[in-house]
Please model this.
Amino acid sequence: MVARAARFILHAQAEAGSLCPVTMTHAALPLLQAHLPAAYADWRAGLLSDRYDAHHLPGGQKRGLLIGMGMTEKQGGTDVLTNTTRAEPLGVRAPGEPWRITGHKWFFSVPQSDAHLILAHTSRGLSCFFLPRLLPDGTRNALRIEQLKEKLGNRSNASAEVEFQDATGWLMGEEGEGVRLLLRMGGMTRFDCALGSHGLMRRALSVALHHAQQRQVMGKPLSEQPLMRLQLARQALQLEAQTALLLRLARAWSAPASETERLYARLFTPVAKFAICRAGMPFVAESMEVLGGIGYCEQSELPRLYREMPVNSIWEGSGNVMCLDILRVLQRYPACHALLQQEFEAVRGANRHVDRSWRQLRLQLRHPHEAQARDLAQELFWLASAAILLKVAEPPLADAWCALALDGRGARGPDETLAARLLLRAGAA
Ligand SMILES: Cc1cc2nc3c(=O)[nH]c(=O)nc-3n(C[C@H](O)[C@H](O)[C@H](O)COP(=O)(O)OP(=O)(O)OC[C@H]3O[C@@H](n4cnc5c(N)ncnc54)[C@H](O)[C@@H]3O)c2cc1C
Model:
């Protein structure tokens, strides 16, 4: 997961339009393996391949395969219990058997996927179905694309509105288990949203840095003007903190056998999705400003990055949904409190901003209020990233982040020595 996270970030830096099918296919693999082992065996090579195979053939005959996800209906994306799509058994009523699916999905990204995992109601509750685009005999499944969405960004990745008219889907897991199964998939895709936003931010900063080094203003490159240097260094510092947390999180995802690491992944995935995806929009705007007027024009990449950025904080559960999820995790798993204690006590005394913030957070955690969940999520991100940097980064860098993130009086940012190092690490020549 750590190597994959690094590659996913690089993928986002190069081209974000193809991240959605990559993340959904990756997240679908464990579900398919656990609940439709025969289909998994038939499709495995194509699903693991990095080829895009556009042939109109049943899955088993293709060299590259994609899987999408269909939960959201018109009346609710967060509240999937309001789904109206229905499923009836075509024969035997059992997991792994084919069912007839009738209904719609209002957001159905990558409609060219070879299959989607969708939610539909049986008489026993909301259930998960594997809905291939082509049936095993090669005929089309009864899935009708009504139209493609006109989106703000993410336009190179199609998202459709679809109707199922007596389509065929194979039941995955037990009836009524659908939300639980798709939320498991959602954990992974939420992590990828944070990685994707981080990659887009890295791209934006590298474009800004490149420009700042070339552009001469009043006889000197922009990157050597003290005010601009500080601005770029603060951005680079923000990325250092995000990278540290994301790769720590990837390590937690890699160790499902460890209860502590599983809990870390469960708690800090929504924290990272909330805080990093939310930070992306102002970050790209600031990078745009570095380029001046041309940053606002399509010749620079920044307008496209700017339009792309909000999607990661909306899909796979929007900001508030992440914050409510964090509250749920804290309530459902009391061991979270011991985990936080362990994380933050391990760096006690290393930085006064961290010590003070941890004291305040501990009080807040005694009676967390729903209306304060956004502040809580943000604080958890700042503290967790600060704690990791205090453990692994050079002290001036860690201290600069602690001050920038946690000193309520508005810290100035890195000094010149650190700024030079940060900009070098961020790719300055
Ligand atoms: C480009 C794009 C592609 C997408 N692709 C897919 C796809 O392939 N498959 C799929 O299933 N879905 C897809 N979606 C849908 C996406 O997952 C949903 O839009 C998202 O989950 C939010 O659901 P909603 O639009 O119904 O908003 P709502 O559920 O109506 O939420 C609206 C707002 O209210 C907030 N909110 C919700 N509940 C609460 C609460 N209790 N307290 C406070 N605030 C709350 C939310 O955080 C959100 O900000 C896609 C969306 C986009 C933008």
